[in-house]
């Protein structure tokens, strides 16, 4: 196995990955700015969005090194290579595809493949994942994540899919390394990026991060 790349630093600091999925990418630069203003600095732009790679490159150029921008819904080795060429700083996949993980590792960037069962989680980790995306997390909820963590405590899990702002703390308390949140966070700001919608998005980002910080403080208090 190629050496496992380190986890995305911005994900480790905030424990939140914002998922930017839209019909087209025209509103994503404004959404990215609003999220960064609210403190969320790990952004996934999904390849199911028309113009995703151009938007990824534009957001990276505008927001600079403090914000990590990656490509999501990467399901083939070809897509992985295209995303890397566009400047993706991490790759996210809904499934375990060794070609995607290998392309990321060869490029020296982390990959977060999706898995749900213990076998899939282990396979993703053995393939070289930096962390494993528990997807869809909402199917089993925090209890499922907790059960996976018991026999696999050394594999960091990122809960994605059906995770709302109000549920983030529950997943982190259950042992998630981080959470990934899309539509419950964006709430249509990508489709209609008015100043009011973007201001509300920044406020939601701050609310989410405060819940994450509360989880961290609770963990320190019980240690």
From TrEMBL:
Subunit text: Homotrimer.
GO MF annotations, alphabetized: lyase activity
TM regions (residue ranges): none
Pathway(s) the chain acts in: Carbohydrate acid metabolism
Entry-linked InterPro entries: Aldlse_KDPG_KHG, Aldolase_TIM, KDPG/KHG_AS_2
Family membership noted in the UniProt record: Belongs to the KHG/KDPG aldolase family.
Lyase as UniProt keyword: yes
CDD domains membership: KDPG_aldolase
Pfam families xref list: Aldolase
Protein name: 2-dehydro-3-deoxyphosphogluconate aldolase
Keywords: Carbohydrate metabolism, Lyase
Lineage top rank: taxon: Bacteria
């Amino acid at each position: 196995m190629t050496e496992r790349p380190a986890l995305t630093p911005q994900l480790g600091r905030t424990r939140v990955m914002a998922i930017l999925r839209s019909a087209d990418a025209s509103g994503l630069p404004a959404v990215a700015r609003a999220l960064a203003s609210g403190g969320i600095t790990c952004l996934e732009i999904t390849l199911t969005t028309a113009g995703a790679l151009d938007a990824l490159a534009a957001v990276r150029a505008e927001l600079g090194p403090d914000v990590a921008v990656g490509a999501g819904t990467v399901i083939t080795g070809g897509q992985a290579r295209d995303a890397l060429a566009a400047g993706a700083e991490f790759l996210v996949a809904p499934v375990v595809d060794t070609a995607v993980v290998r392309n990321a590792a060869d490029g020296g960037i982390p990959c977060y493949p999706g898995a749900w069962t213990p076998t899939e989680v282990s396979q993703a980790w053995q393939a070289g994942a930096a962390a494993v995306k528990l997807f869809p997390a909402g199917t089993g909820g925090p209890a499922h994540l907790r059960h996976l963590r018991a026999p696999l405590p050394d594999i960091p899990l990122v809960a994605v899919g059906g995770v709302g702002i109000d549920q983030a703390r529950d997943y982190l308390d259950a042992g998630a390394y981080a959470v990934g949140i899309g539509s419950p966070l964006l709430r249509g700001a990508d489709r209609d990026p008015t100043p009011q919608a973007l201001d509300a998005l920044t406020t939601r980002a701050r609310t989410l991060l405060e819940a994450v910080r509360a989880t961290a403080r609770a963990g320190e208090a019980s240690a």
